[in-house]
Amino acid sequence: MIGQACRSHIETGMALPSISGETALSYDESLVGLISVLSAVTAAAIAVGPWSVPYELKTIAAIKQRFGKPAARGVWVALAIGFLTAGFAILNGIRPPYAVPASQVDVNR
Length: 109
Description:
By secondary structure, the protein is mainly α. Helix 2 (27-48) packs antiparallel against helix 4 (69-91) and helix 3 (58-67) crosses helix 4. It is built from 4 helices and 2 strands, in the order αββααα. A two-stranded antiparallel ribbon has the order 1-2. The protein has helices spanning 2-12, 27-48, 58-67, 69-91; strands spanning 16-17, 24-25. A hairpin with a 6-residue loop joins strand 1 (16-17) and strand 2 (24-25). It starts with a helix and ends in an 18-residue tail after the last helix. The longest helix is centred in the last third of the chain and has 23 residues, at 69-91. It has a domain at 27-95.
């Protein structure tokens, strides 16, 4: 049943519904939102994990050297929160008032 619904969306070029159900969510928006959420999970795992390699990145290493490892962990947490916020905004179809979804653009104007 679900496979048929997805197949019909792909065949007809229709967009998938968003999480909020208000507007249609295109495949590229779904992909970007999912990548953002996965990036948030990765950044959060780095912040709480025992790894030292992510702290060797140039910017994070400079923060770690100047302010210490807790501050560098804070940067990873801030990145995780930012990615998560962006991901949920994208997946819910939240956009600036001047942005028009590609599905609603009138090419005959």
